[in-house]
Specification:
EC number: 3.4.14.4
Organism: Polypterus senegalus
Subcellular location: Cytoplasm
Catalytic activity: Release of an N-terminal dipeptide from a peptide comprising four or more residues, with broad specificity. Also acts on dipeptidyl 2-naphthylamides
Protein name: Dipeptidyl peptidase 3
Radius of gyration: 25 Å
Largest sheet: 5 strands, mixed
Strand order of the largest sheet: 6-7-8-10-9
Strand content: 5-15%
Number of strands: 19
């Protein structure tokens, strides 16, 4: 029997991402704009296969060739003839859907590997009897031989993503470890070169000397200066006695496809900001320039209230084990005007709400830059997973002084927050009905506060290359110690480069704490239409949802190497620890036995003590988080955060024992089936699908109907070029 955390169950939730109401309301020009941005996103999203695991690209190509010849409904009879039971065939379809949803064979939320839940011999038999194999036996056998063993392997190192002996990653060659990552980050900082669009390959010469290749993602491979290339840092460097080579051309054919689609989208842009934004993104993806992407992001935040919203690039660094390299993602969405009005009101109240946060004014930005905050119905979200909210861009230099945008993905949130009572774990019976009723409304409040005033608050103290400070270094004191601030960010140092491995989860924790803290504010509750006793119920469910999430988070902890695999869930566990530490009966955790005779647990929250005990506990912790962040105090911040992140079996919580219970009763994360757009004469047609594994598979085959074979050859060539780096 395979541990259940490494398989996807046959009854996993699969839901269509509904855009049927929003898309038809677009004008013909807006539909064309959305279509070409979607195409750019889908082509770029395939890069994630190459960012996930050595075998992910080959598995993807194998599946595409299988289903292009025979859709799931036709392949079913082949599976039966090959000896697969209906349950085993469904397990294969769910596995394939998981590959498409996660853009690889590791879960986007948790970074754990998943394998097919059917015998390897039966899957091989299905492939061998397929039409794809009959038409191209040599190629299909080569694909299977390349990925079959790795597809099923659960060797300890391959169970999760990680660096060195802690897991597998393709952001770094297989011979890299944490020390290599730290040295290269110092080199990148010295050259004012961002890691966001890079991968690292370590080469060891015959004499034992190392050479590091920093490879930039770009459509162009030529490293010589070219017209229009104003940010070329390619070349050889000697740093700290070690040779470094900065080259470009990573993912080149896929990057070229992205560039081509963005150029087409520009013809249908609604205004100059969108035109300039796309010009800069084209420059960024063609030459491999993060500076151009930053400039494009500046135009993006100036584009207030567009009907069609989008963003694309190497954005989130959650899955880089070192926390500096961005995973490619692209989204296209249509504004939901009704919900956006609430978020706009929250933005307008921000300058009143920010002073409520528990740190001195010197630790807050000098001016709150009002962002665009909209609720969107997603048409396309390409990458490894779909969040419910986003606050971008992630570049500190822009967020701190120029602004940012917040988006809540309304049609994603509606599906993600839907809960069945019989599958609701770890709550008291008397809490379940209210939880189901108010999870979505309370989550809307939390997401709004998390994105706008969580990620949008707090100042970073910086000394630039010329010795200028953005704060009064002679008078600002640390409110925890009373002493003058003695540390800050210097030169090209950023939050990600400084706090590296804990930066993402630490920041998610800070934003979640802001949400908990400010959801107690009556003005906030009123903005979201919550008044009186209903408002108090929303507060209660928001806090209860957070403590329950802290329990569920244990699924994403690996005891063998004592690592967390998911930034948000680690953050929620830390908050649970903080609230348990507050004592006074605020939160209680009881190990029990369920009605099925198996281990269970009950988490409860005393709603009468949220304001009197919970709020002061979050206030103290949140202030410490912000002070360490503002002052670049890595040592203090790491000690605080890793202390609360520790998972032991000490009484009374016995978290390691509780983890086994969580794994026993866990529910698989939902998958989304997304629509496709297609040019039909002078119009754009929306092609929708139902919510099943077969439909999710069909959507991906249709998505690359016109150029699938050529595209797959490009993906295989990119994968094979670097295969030796992980062998």
């Amino acid at each position: 029997m395979v541990d259940s955390q490494y398989i996807l169950p046959n009854d996993v939730g699969i839901s269509p991402l509904d855009c049927a109401e929003a898309f038809p309301l677009l004008s013909p020009k807006e539909k064309l704009y959305a279509h070409y941005l979607s195409r750019a996103s889908w082509y770029g999203g395939l890069i994630v296969l190459l960012q996930t695991s050595p075998e992910s690209p080959t598995i993807y190509v194998l599946l595409q060739r299988l289903f292009r010849k025979q859709p799931p409904s036709v392949l079913e009879s082949v599976a039966s003839a090959a000896g697969l039971s209906p349950e085993e065939y469904q397990a294969f379809l769910v596995y394939a859907a998981g590959i498409y949803s996660n853009m690889g064979n590791y879960k986007s939320f948790g970074d754990t590997k998943f394998i097919p839940n059917l015998p390897k011999e039966k899957l091989k038999a299905l492939i061998w009897q397929s039409q794809a194999f009959k038409d191209s036996p040599t190629q299909m056998e080569a694909l299977w031989n390349s990925c079959g063993d790795l597809m099923y392997s659960l060797d300890e190192k391959l169970k999760q993503l990680g660096l060195g002996d802690k897991g597998i990653t393709t952001y770094f060659s297989g011979n890299c470890c944490l020390k290599d990552a730290e040295l290269v980050q110092k080199f990148l900082d010295s050259k004012n070169l961002s890691a966001y669009n890079t991968r690292l390959f370590k080469q060891v010469n015959n004499d034992g000397k190392c050479c590091y290749e920093v490879r930039l993602a770009s459509a162009i491979k030529d490293e010589c200066p070219i017209d229009g290339d104003v940010d070329n840092k390619c070349g050889c460097y000697n740093f700290d006695g070690t040779l470094f080579k900065v080259v470009r051309g990573d993912y080149a054919p896929l990057m070229q496809r992205v560039v081509d689609c963005l150029k087409k989208a520009k013809a249908y842009a609604a205004n100059e900001n969108e035109e300039h934004m796309l010009e800069e993104y084209v420059q960024s993806f063609f030459f491999g320039s993060i500076e151009a992407h930053k400039q494009g992001s500046r135009y993006w935040i100036r584009d207030k209230g567009p009907i069609v919203e989008s963003h694309i690039g190497f954005i989130e660094s959650y899955r880089d084990p070192f926390g500096s390299r961005g995973e490619f993602e692209g989204f296209v969405a249509v504004v939901n005007k009704a919900m956006s009005a609430r978020f706009a009101e929250l933005v307008n109240s921000a300058e009143v709400l920010l002073p409520e946060l528990p740190w001195p004014t010197q630790f807050e930005k000098d001016h709150f830059l009002k962002p665009d905050f909209t609720s969107l119905d997603v048409l396309t979200f390409a990458g490894s997973g779909i969040p419910v909210g986003i606050s971008i861009p992630n570049y500190d230099c822009i967020r701190q002084s120029e602004g940012f945008k917040n988006v809540s993905l309304g049609n994603v949130l509606a599906v993600a927050s839907a809960t069945q009572k019989e599958k609701l774990t770890f709550l008291r019976e008397e809490d379940k009905d209210l939880y189901i009723k108010l999870k979505n409304p309370s989550f809307e409040v939390q997401v709004g506060l998390h994105e706008l005033l969580g990620h949008g608050s707090g100042k970073l103290f910086v000394e630039d290359e010329k010795g200028n400070f953005n704060f009064d270094s002679k008078n600002v004191r640390n409110p925890e110690t009373g002493e003058l601030v003695s540390s800050w960010y210097k030169g090209s140092e950023t939050w990600d480069s400084k706090f590296s491995t804990i930066a993402s989860t630490y920041e998610e924790c800070r934003a979640e704490c802001v949400g908990l803290y400010l959801c107690l504010n009556n003005r906030v509750l009123s903005i979201f239409g919550q008044e009186g006793s209903d408002a108090e119920d929303v507060v209660y469910i928001n806090w209860l949802n957070m403590v329950r999430a802290g329990v569920l988070a244990l699924e994403f902890y690996t005891p063998v190497n004592k690592t967390w695999r998911q930034a948000h869930m680690q953050a929620r566990f830390v908050i649970l620890r903080v609230l348990l530490e507050a004592n006074e009966g605020l939160v209680s955790l009881e190990h029990t036995v369920g009605s099925d005779g198996k281990p269970d647990a009950i988490i409860s929250l005393d709603r009468t003590k949220i304001r009197s005990v919970g709020k002061p506990a979050i206030e103290r912790f949140l202030r410490k988080l912000q002070i360490h962040k503002s002052t670049a105090d890595v040592e203090g911040g790491r000690a605080l955060y890793e202390g609360y992140s520790s998972v032991t079996d000490s009484e009374p919580e016995k978290f390691l024992t509780l983890r086994e219970t969580v794994l026993l009763r866990k529910e698989a994360r939902k998958m989304f089936v997304q629509a496709n757009t297609r040019v039909q004469g002078d119009t754009i047609e929306l092609q929708e699908y139902a919510g099943s594994a077969a439909d999710l598979i069909r959507s991906f085959v249709d998505r690359f109907h016109d150029d699938g074979e050529e595209l797959e050859e490009e993906i295989l060539a990119l994968s094979q070029m670097d295969a030796h780096c992980w062998s």
